[in-house]
Amino acid sequence: MKRLNLTRLAAAFLLAAGLFTSCKSTPDLAPVDPFELLDGDAALYLSLPVQAHQDFVLSAIQKVAGANEADAQKIAERLNTAYIALGINGNLQLSCSGKIPQNFVGMALNEKKGWKPGVIAQQTVYTHQESLYQLCLPSSSNAFLSNNIEPMVLRFNKIAYSDQSISEKLLSESMNEGLYRLLHDNNTSDIVMYSPLPQAFMKSMLGSAGINLPIESFFAVLSQYRGVKEQFNVKLIINMSDPRTVKATSALLKTALFGVPAKISQTGQKQITITDLPVSKARLLGIIR
Questions:
Q1: 22-36: pLDDT as tens digits
Q2: DSSP type of residue 167
Q3: 32 lies in the same domain as 132
Q4: Cα 249 from chain centroid?
Q5: Using an 8 Å Cβ cutoff, are 289 and 204 in contact?
Q6: Alpha-carbon distance 78 to 65, whole Å?
Q7: DSSP string of 192-230?
Q8: Range of the domain at 91
Q9: Residues with Cβ < 8 Å from 46, sequence gap 6 or more?
Q10: What's the CA gap between 257 and 238, in Å, rounded?
Q11: Is 60 within the bounds of a domain?
Q12: pLDDT tens digits, 110-136
């Protein structure tokens, strides 16, 4: 799998959220669910309640991309929820809901600032000439960014204009309903993460214990760790590909995580659950390199 580095992630936040910091207006369409615009075959999904984790977003933008605190704050306070999908081919999709000010397009998205306009499926799309990210602002409530944005544009048109001639599947049409609800209906302040292709991410989550384990998928809930700003408290549900490996894997994890205040238990024939696992914000960023 092509690796996605931290600079790309922070650049995505900066470029997509740049629309919230600048002052021609965007169409006043009904809001479209940003989660529906993501691909259904991604390797990792992440639901991020931005207002509950502004410190994390600010840290990503400031430390990795070099934005100053004032600009980073302007970005974070205008975002509601950000959904991220990372594809097996290295494609990154960032879909946000928020409040997009008028007079943004003409002022901020121009060629002097590195943006070149184009049209995809009758929507204006801006390509950043340095990063090659594509940004679309089709309404006053939606913004999305990707290095391959056409599928997201088509899904937006399908929903916003009820265009059933578009064959591109919505996420709700391609993802298991129960899993969709777990990720989408995240009304808590927790970050929710799911991967159906976990091997690329387990080393960052578990360190050396996560290498070459026969894992089929994982689901994680990350909450603030006892008020410590730089750490998350993680509940990690690991689904194994072979039930015969569950006991041995549990023992391996207990040994590898010795001294870490985490609880490891078998919670199903093919399932291991780890609770109270401390994970630093830097390690979370490393998961989506």
A1: 444 455 678 899 999
A2: -
A3: yes
A4: 28
A5: yes
A6: 19
A7: EEEESSTHHHHHHHHGGGGTT--EEEEEEEEEEETTEEE
A8: 6-168
A9: 83, 84, 85, 191, 192, 193, 288
A10: 15
A11: yes
A12: 787 788 899 999 999 989 888 788 888
